## 1
Amino acid sequence: MLLGTGLRLQHVGDRSMTHIEMYVPNIPMGTDLSVPKSRMDLWTVVTDTLSSDTHPPGYYVFMWFVTKCFGSGTLAIRLPSVLFGVGSIGLVFWLGVLIGQRTPACVAAVFLALNGYLIVWNKTGRMYSMVCFLGLLTTILLLLLARSDRHRRTLEIGYAALTLLGLATHVFFWAMLATQMLWVLGNAWAQNRPMPRLLNVQILIVILGSPLLASAAYQSVNQVAFVSSVPVMAREYIQFVYLIPGWDDTWAPGGAPALALAPQFFLPRVILFLLCVLLLIVGIRRLKPAGERLLGEPAGSFGGAWLAAAVLAVITILAHIAIAVHHLQPKPTLKYTKAMTVLPLLLVFAATLLRKSWDGLRNWCSRWSFKFLQGGPPLVWMLAVGPFALLVIASVVFRPLTDPRRLLFLAPYLLLTLAIGAVRLGQRSRWLALSLFLILGALHGFSVWAYSNRSVGPVDYKEFADKLKPHLQSDDLIFLRREWDTTPILYYVKPDHYHLLASNFVDACRRNPNARVWALLFHGEELPAAMEPALKEYREVETVEVYLARGVLYCRGPCR
């Protein structure tokens, strides 16, 4: 954990801000200059997330309080992700101990600490570290609850609250909850149990979280991830979760090509893939059913709690519809949200039907054996494989939903499974153990080095601003497009210090005939058509440039 902390804190505040971090609240970005707009109050955080994002508002609400207390500096924006990432290192060890795999738990913690791809995203102000941490916590609480002979209300409340927080932070958390529910169902059927109390608690969570599904339906019109190749994504996921850069979604400085993609590295990459497949198979076989008796307490009465939760959920969905109609520009997908008003009540009906038909369903399912799911160990490989499979199926059948960074919350379970496989193979001979130690150690060391200068965006806005600002004068006009790829420059060239404009360029030049004009251009673009009429009487004088960003100075007469 100390090593992981050091790697994640290294230069954490020095790296350039990126577009996805500009969604953090309380960053002043001027009026009508940025995408997204500034989120300076809680109401704007919630409404703007619902209208222009693909994620629930949980992380942004959390960060509103963080930045309100500690400011919107790069360290304040990124430190929560660092802490969640470090906490996940400790939690994966705890999870391994709970399933009786202490040595692999240590190895998995090292894998998590030294994964360069995870380090990059743990140093970024985004929700992925938080989702990973919450997923591990809910899994640990699930195991503790399943092994308890009597219900422990504090643990149940904690499990429900953290699961709802996970659902409110990232929409993919639903895949994790679905896998956890499948594990509970499998254990109940394998042991011929009455409907377990824990399953009833999970159903209650689903009902309470159903408004988040209605919100996701409303947000479905927004742009989501693009899956270029599911086989490639699966291949690199299996290889210690994008351990080697090249097929991931990070960027090398200056557009430098990934060293690992050179032709001479083709054979080592094939060998690494085959090794990971072997470790995964051995790890899953090692995570065999423990034969332990779980879910000891029967359900009790949950009908009233389900109904109360459904009423609260319906009210919440209606409130979302009212906000969309009266305070946002309604999207065509609002019709889906309206249709989902009945979803909470349908869930109550389905849950009641399941409870009443449980005995018959259990007898019908007894013809199949669910013993392979029994006990705590199978939960780990299920979470390593199950949510990934669900998300891939949804991406293929419906629309692209996922990309590498959205799979980070599954990393601890895959790395623990691979660690179990590595330890099991290493027990066969001392030479094999030494070989695995050297190979995996070298790979993780290479990963830390290879990702050390990479970022989650191609443009270094900080470097560009540092190079541009000495050339700026107090009365200069600065033109830029109002778009996602120009927004991070507003973090460094602040609207309250400079004359920044994203529209009305002709009027601005007419009102300031003697002012110099800077046009900020990104990703190799030429002068936008919207700026050309304003600058037709100007001449290009100077250019300040870094990789994929340049500022062009225009003057009407002699430049001062």
Note: The chain has two domains: 2-451, 461-555.
## 2
Amino acid sequence: MCGIAGIVRFDGGALAQVERMRAMRRALRHRGPDGEGEFVSADAVLGHTRLAMLDRAGGAQPMTSPDGRYTIVFNGEIYDHERLRGRLPYPYSTDSDAETVLAAFAVWGYKCVELLNGMFAFFVWDAAAKRGLAMRDRLGVKPLAYAWDGQEFVFASEANVVAKALPGPVRADTDAVLEYLVAPCFSGVEKPMFAGVSYLQPGSWVRVTADGTHVHRYYRFAVARDGDGPGEEELKGAFERSVRRTCVADEPLAVFLSGGLDSTAVAAVAARCLPRLRAYSIVFAGMREFDYRRSTIVVSDDMQYIGAAVEATGVDWRAVEVPREELAADLERVATTNDALPAWEQEVAQDRLARAAAADGFKGVLVGDAADETHYGYHFLLDPEATAGPEKIIKRFGGVAVRREVLEDPVEAFAEKYRAWVRSEADEEERISGTTRLIVERWLPRLLHNGDIHCMRSGVEARVPFADNELLALAAKVPPRVGLAGGEKARLRAALRGVVPEAIRTRRKSALPKDQGAGPVYQREAARLLAEPPALVRELVDLAAVRPLLDERRELGEWERAGLFRVIGLCHFSRHHGIP
């Protein structure tokens, strides 16, 4: 896992951009503390920071093919790269998966991406053809942002790094920030929060030549409408193989354990591969006493289930506590780390878990992300009202009031965008399928971005077994009527019988915990920051609607608390990035 950056010019002026590229590389140092490298030519300057998980001695980047034609900067892990090597006539000089990808591109060209099983974002410079190509994995586990002005192509692993490398002051993309305020769970995916910067979308590649850029989508997750889907044993086998593939590393791996179905199943299989597997779970003050009846997505206390998971799997368990007196500092940290703006309160937990794993010397962790989105894991899919149209989902999860002068009807403005996936006039099964497509294409990449950026802030690689190609292909064959037969995630639950304790296998989906007692901290922090709000906040946020929430005599509801969390995040984000 690494940080990548580069500048390509077609006027022979890349050599003059070396210091700019090095500044970008320095800004990505947290993503790769084990080493750095660069490639310099008249047409392209590429930088790399390395988190060494495979072939520490030989996997330095950038890496150039023996004939000098292709140079790669690669971020990610290809889990089956040794199998691919046997199919490629190539004079290998390292044992790294980056060289496998370089060889695959040299032999197969663009088609190589269809054969890569893993998480990745990489850029290849073709010196002979004078063109570059960036590719991103199927679900968007690994990020890549870029800018193109007709003369210069600038890219990096983080959008803020690209924004700060462009001429002039950093500016916000107003539409992207508005989406964050109105529909946070779908925000920060279509485009970054920075004006002039684009994201390469999941399952896509972009080719850049002197004539411009060309983007191609090579993969979309599309659920089946017919058939019965894979059998339980077939799905179970694919899942177990996916976990085993993600356990291959030269460095020790840990696991984030919530006591839910997904993370417990990952821990159970990984514990067979990794001796004395370390597991980390988040613990908030007073968590056992939280009123889960008033919560939409965190519906039960994790602790009893975590105990059962630890006993069943034999993992070496560690509790990661989040002191409430440090919460204000945590809010600033997640807001200045996440350049897509922190959308969920649970990002505090993600950051704390990553910091704990890093402090114990781990460079990689296994996570249960992507299971809910690709296996019908959300309970609201069973609610006809919730799937009746995208506006229902937006309202269900709340937002921040925006100024009427900016958007007359904020919910409708963004719901219209999402109707490409969900049509209210469709039949029930199609509405569920459409909602699932929307979740996979907009909600899931946001979740994966959050996991990546908070883990990589601490130099920790998050590995996602549920994003495995084989497992994804089987998940896509499960139609809604099968995946939701008797409850959410029905086919996956059936497949994991015997892998996890029954109490966990049948447990209703509950999201990663958040601190339900954090309201007073949010109120104080928001009041402090809004005493002199940044111009961006004054321009977009309806402060008159927000200010009543700051009264500490008022007990905040779940989505009022979430709204203040996002206002705090926007204030810190604006100031940190120097956005007026």
Note: The chain has a mean pLDDT of 95.
## 3
Amino acid sequence: MGRDATTSALSGPAVGPHGKVMLRRLFLAMRDDAGKARACSAAARNEAGLAAWHRGELANAETELRAALDADPGFAPAYGNLGMVLWEQRRIDEGLATLRRGVEIDPSHPGVRINLANALAIGGVPGEALVHYREVLRRDPCHPLATANALRPMLEVCDWDGAEALVDGLVARWRADPADGVRDCVMPFLSQLVNVPQGMRLDVARHHSRLVAAEVGHLPSPPRSRRPRGGRLRIGYLSADFHDHATAHLATGVFEHHDRDRFEVHAYSFGIDDGSALRRRLVTAFEDFHDVRTLPHAELARRIAADGIDVLVDLKGYTGEARPQVLALRPAPVQASWLGYPGTMAAPFIDCTIADAVVIPPGAQHEYGETIVRLPDSYQANDDRQPIAQETPAPAALGLPENAFVFACFNDPYKIDRRVFAAWMRVLAAVPGSVLWLLGGHANDVLQRAAGAAGIDPQRLVFAGRLPKAEHLARHRAADLFLDTHTCCAHTTASDALWAGLPVLACPGEGFASRVSASLLYAVGLGELVCASREDYERSAIALAGDRGRLAALRARLAHNRTRLPLFDTARFTRNLESAYLALADRGAARAA
């Protein structure tokens, strides 16, 4: 596993205002009365299906969209929407086939093509997704959805030229006039992955929160259950990631450690049941585990309100499969964002972000749209029950040369930008015989070519495949030093390295997403590995590679601190988190009085 709890926010309807313009054009092309009647019927059922999709009513959406195609089998927009509805129901092959059929019927329809590209990007085929995004942009260079969604696959394949040109253009437009539509061209989560001003991240998040609120603005807030004072505080966790996912790897121990005498803890799971051992452990970790995959937004909000939840904790933010529409309906008196999203949601329906003094340092409040609640150590939970496989594979079995100094970075490739890769190449050049061990992905060939262009033998880049979590943790023992990325750093991945005993060298920037590994290092007593500049980062990497004694002392200190300092003390972390919940509930009660 070893993947961060941050996934792409690409899913969702592409047929919005721009799709409706295309529908009107299609209507104008219809000649005969029968054709017009079919088009009107298909369009009406398509719109009904789209509305149901927005509400989270996937079964109803499918029924309406199939009715649209019964009315007019050549109606491409309905294929585009139906394909995504099937995809969201995890009927992947059927969804892709439906989307491809829509593109075949009308290759010029941007919404249909974008939905196909979205599904391909989410499904791990970024190269093909980019082909479709670029075709939309060829026809309409300013298309906001194609612009917004093309960035993630560019990062996945390390298309630095394309990504930098796109981001630089968006930043320039935002600086010139934030109201010119540029905020529709940037997904909030993707703004955390690239080098944009903090003010732009806040502006984009605020804009997105307004769109979310507008989706459900016509619906009333659900009535909350009235309960007598003095009972246990009811905490609800809202997520799609209660399965074999990075967020669950971090937080399962916290759910298990909650004090059941003082807290009644609910999970609202709208993600898959993958049948994993971790899923089974999660189901038993909560007092009440609600599988709410099939509930529309309004019905889920009613369920939460009826359960009398005092503090609702969102673990998704604006990442993939998130359902902020539920939070916008205000089912709980206090609503917090924690762990799953490394930035501001800037939403009136989110009261606070749970952080710490490193990821959001004092003085940075103006960059966030909600109250900051800082935990005393690191904000990031860790599970001190995570198993590590006993056996460490031999270097040859991992593709590593014997006796080489092994620099490692198991971050997903989308976090590797041109600047950090250039720094790594300078480090390799200064440490003869060393190798860089990376998590394999769609960018392997691109990165090897970039290494060659920098004068480094491409074979000095070694790519690791995916493994079950316990085995992935064990192979960290074969590495000597973890070199973190900068703009968006290691989150779960840094915890994995430290839990496995591998020191992490960090170089934090300005934003939350760039400062998580620094937070973890301070909490485990290795603050000297937090570098003040990129130059210091390179010098430190080279110096540590040349001083095996110092590196061994760091590893020994990490092994000692791992069981003694706060980072991996799950019970201590849970008590601190519970104290924050109690304070939040008091504030909520004071507001309501």
Note: The two ends are 46 Å apart (CA to CA).
## 4
Amino acid sequence: MSAPPSAPVLPPETGEWDGVTLVDQLLAEQQRLTAVERFAQKHARTDFPVQSRYYRDLVPLDRPAPGQQYAFEVDLDSCSSCKACVSACHSLNGLEENETWREVGFVIGKAPGVVLQQAVTTACHHCVEPGCLQGCPVAAYDKDPVTGIVRHLDDQCIGCQYCTMKCPYDVPKYSERLGIVRKCDMCHGRLAAGEAPACVQACPHEAIRISVVSVPAVRAEAGAGARLVPGAFDSGYTVPTTRYRSRRGALDGAQPADSHRLHLEPAHGPLMVMLVLTQGSAGMLAFLAAADAAAPRLTARAEFPVLVGALAVLLLGLAASTLHLGRPLGAWRFFLGLRTSWMSREILAFGLLAAAAAGATAAAGLAPASPLARAAVVAAALLGAAAVFTSVMIYVDTRRALWRLGPTLRRFFGTFTSVGLLAAGLVGFWFGAPPPAAAGPLLRGLAVASLALAAAIHGGELLGWRRALRDPANPAHASAVVVRRHLRGLSRARVAVGGVSALLMVVSLGTAGGPAAAWLAGALLGTLVGAVLERYVFFTAVVAYRMPGGV
């Protein structure tokens, strides 16, 4: 026990007698308290939750200051992979049977005389620049300006699932039953009441805690190809704030325990149909605009039927896209994400394209081959190309290797050109009825152009897969392995469909008029089937990024 307030004490840090105040004495006494005495003081207090004595030291006492935010901090050396954190998160947040907001994986490594198996517990990293927030078209995410916690606003979500593609850590989870996405919010309600999140409370080894981090420091650490743990995505993309600590250093040489597991991703059937139809429609408009400029007399009677066909295909594709949404009635709020989301821009672009195509169709119906109608066609064609580009950027912006800019441009504008060319030419021939003298050369030229384009696109893609399969350093290598393991039969079917389409085009070269159109119609059907199969590969063969070691 310390001396009475009036008596001088010997401050332990100076070793000299001096007169001190009561406050000085109490502070000095606190520094000399043992762990048992500190525990007794906390146990005597009744203004905290009963369990707080177990986790109080694992959450910060003060809210973050400007330039700071909350973050998970994980002591890897203390994690035993018991998954108590997973169970507690699932139970206390009322998740569905197969829904998980926190997961446990493993990284493994090998060095001379040492074999490493390290458990890694992971949840939302509450990034400084969240990919989910930036990609959401309806502003269904919010980053708290004080705590930095990234929350999902369930009532705002339309279930487009774009955030699941944008997040490189597989954090947002889609609920088929609810039609929305949900994710970890660091149990912000508990934190606001001075209580620890479920995972922090449940860990028997105190491996998880909440800390306050400096945002500028986190940004600095995320540079130069830094990763949270081996196998995680480049931290420079979203600047995650979770801190993994280990006395064994940076786990050099380790790799995800699941690195050999390559499986198919969801096919997103409505998106497959939407992409093929909208790109084909935009291609029809572009082909019509080019034909109007090159041979206005030949295309005068075909202008209106081609525009009607392009508009119908476009509307069918947009209708198919709504089947992908969990809550399609909320899609009108797309304008909320225009500043950051390519999906918002795509919705706007195709909305404008539909209006422009309808206007061009009306103009062509009221004043065929007039300057106004042709100007409207050109405007619609330009909008169509811009809309297809926004579709390209939706996938490029996810940073997935298979969805890089060059290959995605070739795939999408290949469909734009091949389907648009055949569809516009055939619709124009059937309903526009060009002069008999021009019909033969027109259809033969169309067949030659389509055949050359299909050969270039499909042949280039097959060569690309072969190169990627042989080169492990190729960004598309893992996707090429997926195609070989899981999509070999589909790839052969696609080659067969392409061969039949090419054969029909060749047969059409030896005929003229109606028979040639019939052969090319079969080729168009084969081209559409091939495009849908290509989209299936596009979605299922992509390697989605996630934290390492999971299922």
Note: Confidence is low (pLDDT under 50) at residues 1-17.
